UniProtKB/TrEMBL annotation:
This is Chitobiase/beta-hexosaminidase C-terminal domain-containing protein. The keyword Signal applies. It comes from the Bacteria. Residues 107-220 form the Cytochrome c domain. Keywords: Heme, Iron, Metal-binding, Signal. It comes from Geomonas diazotrophica. Residues 1-21 form the signal peptide. InterPro entries: Cyt_c-like_dom, GH29D-like_dom, Multiheme_Cytochr_ET, Octahem_Cyt_c. Coiled coil: none annotated.
Length: 607
């Protein structure tokens, strides 16, 4: 048996050795897929990148750059590929044996404003929308271009409102230039277009898209500054003389910097810091943290505008209380994960007393104790306009036109009001409304009251007045074009009445108008600059705002009546001791005042 097993083993070994020899002339099947290598690999590049695809064996390479998965019907690679804009390259190869490689992907991110524009030659404003069509379409519908939009946060007027003049009277009034009636030219200088009035349409033509001036926001304001002038013949804007527009477009493409935004927003109303009260050209250059710790360079935050005013689809978050349209429903808030994530909570501050305020007091109220401050490292004043008198004309050599006489001031104490985020506004052709508290005709007001539900807060505001004309019970949208050219107030009023459909012979009177404008900027460092308790309490000695006198915090009845709900009338005590009724005994504010704070879960009846 052993001899038989050994013989079989030897036979098997001989057969094993003879197989390779017998098959030596037969080809072995290729079942290995090819390997394709991209050089360079994907990544971030500051300029155009050239990509080469190489294969480790004879094969055909297929690729796409539009994000789709390539097939054997896709484009065949034959020469190096150059990407000047961000692309995702997907590719695979098929060898002569029919083996298919697994699809590979590389993303080439081209960053920097010069990366996509480095070889451009200026051919006119249409060149932007011809490449960036989807962005132009989004911008065309936005408030920066249309100058009107959803009025969802207005309690008065039609569903769509804005600055642009309109037959339905939805054109906003203000206490500065009143209205753009008859003055589209100068006003249009800050419109993000080339000079033609925008037309509302859901399908703008290529010619309409070409009227968007992308360079107002996307020019490199530091390395290739851009400015424009209006052509007196065509009425359209064109680059200012002496600009190297090739360089401007080659450097363009960056996100807007503060300089871009402030070119219009700081100069609204006719000059630096005139209108907003908390925004000036200094906001783009200062290192003075006491002026604005958020935007100041150096030891400040150096925050760009879009750090708070985020953009989605060219729609910007944020809205002033006096502005009619909202561009985005996204709310701007201080308590974000990136900035102050806990400050809006009931435990976010270091003291219990401060934490009790956060549901009803806006951050700005305590952190902006004055506005229209001067930056300590700028030569110009950042004074803001507090009144505008149209009855007195002054020649402005800088603007080369007549201007109404302004009153300006620095270091102003805000006025305070409750605001729930919506606004009341008087628009062109509306009946004027007299505010008996100020004896002025209202232009805009924040909406809110001390007894509103949670969400309404106390905010700081700039208070602004103007001397304007009133006819047939309406604020006259005087022709600013006539006034700027001639300084003739009477004729400007008459031209304005004609526009409103009021006979120019109609008698008019001169009245005061006023408005409130919410303050959000010029926040100094908190240490040593935030309002102290004595700024508001007690009412008799408050240095900033008298809560009882001006804001409705007074008792709902004499102390003899209020105290008798629980006990006999007692001698008045200081405000801290008096509020032990709330903080220690747990009584709701409504027991003593004309408002309630139900969110605190306090006792609504005495016991």
């Amino acid at each position: 048996m052993k001899k038989l097993f050994a013989a079989l083993t030897c036979l098997a070994m001989l057969l094993a050795l003879s197989v390779p020899a017998a098959l030596a002339g037969r080809p072995v099947a290729d079942k290995t897929a090819p390997t394709t290598t991209a050089s360079p690999l994907g990544g971030t590049f500051t300029s155009a990148v050239t990509v080469t695809l190489s294969v480790n064996e004879p094969a055909t390479t297929y690729y796409t750059t539009d994000g789709s998965t390539p097939t054997t019907s896709s484009t065949v690679y034959s020469a190096p590929l150059t990407f000047s804009t961000t692309k995702t390259l997907k590719y695979f190869s098929k060898d002569t044996a029919g083996n298919l490689e697994t699809v590979k992907s590389q993303t080439y991110t081209i960053s920097g404003p010069t990366s996509t524009h480095a070889t451009l030659t200026w051919t006119g404003y249409a060149m932007c929308s011809s490449c960036h069509t989807s962005q132009a379409q989004a911008m065309y519908q936005g408030v920066h271009y249309q100058w009107k939009g959803s009025a969802a946060e207005m309690t008065t007027g039609p569903a769509t409102q804005g600055k642009i003049d309109a037959a339905d009277g939805s054109s906003a009034l203000n206490a500065y230039c009143i209205n753009i009636q008859g003055n589209w030219g100068p006003c249009g200088a800050c419109h993000a277009g080339t000079g033609a009035k925008p037309v509302a349409t859901s399908t703008p033509s290529s010619a309409q898209l070409a009227s968007i001036d992308c360079l107002m926001c996307h020019a490199d304001a530091t390395n290739a500054p851009y400015s424009r002038v209006r052509n007196a013949t065509t009425g359209l804007f064109e680059p200012a003389a002496g600009l190297d527009m090739n360089l401007v477009v080659q450097k363009a493409g960056q996100k807007p910097t503060r300089k871009n935004c402030l070119g219009c927003h700081a100069k609204a109303g006719g000059g630096d810091a005139v209108k907003r009260g908390d925004i000036a050209l200094a906001s783009g250059t200062t290192s003075d943290v006491l002026y604005d710790t958020h935007m100041a360079m150096g030891n400040g935050g150096n925050i760009q505008c879009q750090g708070c005013h985020s953009f989605v689809g060219h729609r910007v978050a944020g809205r002033g209380s006096d502005l009619r349209p909202e561009d985005s429903t996204t709310e701007v808030t201080c308590s974000t994960t990136a900035c102050h994530p806990t400050k809006g909570t009931a435990t976010g501050h270091t003291t219990t007393d401060v934490n009790r305020h956060v549901t009803r007091i806006a951050c700005q109220t305590c952190h902006i104790n004055k506005y229209a401050k001067n930056a300590n490292d700028t030569a110009n004043t950042e004074a803001t306009e507090t009144n505008r008198n149209w009855q007195v004309a002054e020649w402005n050599a800088t603007l080369n036109r007549y201007e109404p006489m302004p009153t300006k001031a620095n270091d102003l104490v805000p006025q305070y009001a409750f605001w729930n985020g919506t606004s009341w506004g008087n628009n062109a052709l509306n009946a004027a409304v007299l505010d008996t508290a100020t004896n002025a005709y209202k232009i805009s007001r924040p909406v809110g009251a001390i007894n509103d539900p949670v969400g309404t807060k106390l905010f700081p505001f700039k208070y602004k007045t103007a001397n304007q004309a009133l006819a047939n019970g309406k604020v006259v949208t005087i022709s600013t074009a006539t006034f700027f050219a001639t300084g003739n107030y009477d004729q400007s009023v008459k031209d304005g009445m004609t526009y409103m459909g009021i006979p120019s012979t109609t008698a008019y009177t001169n009245v005061t108008t006023d408005e409130l404008q919410v303050l959000n900027h010029q926040v100094p460092p908190a240490t040593g600059n935030v309002l102290a308790c004595a700024s508001c309490h007690p009412n008799a000695t408050a240095t900033q705002v008298k809560l009882i006198t001006n804001l409705g915090y007074g008792l709902k009845a004499p102390t003899s009546v209020v105290c008798s709900q629980c006990h006999n009338e007692k001698s008045p005590r200081d405000y801290v001791s008096m509020h032990n009724h709330v903080n220690v005994k747990g009584y709701d504010c409504s027991l003593c005042h004309n408002f309630s704070r139900p969110e605190r879960g306090l006792k609504m009846t005495p016991n």
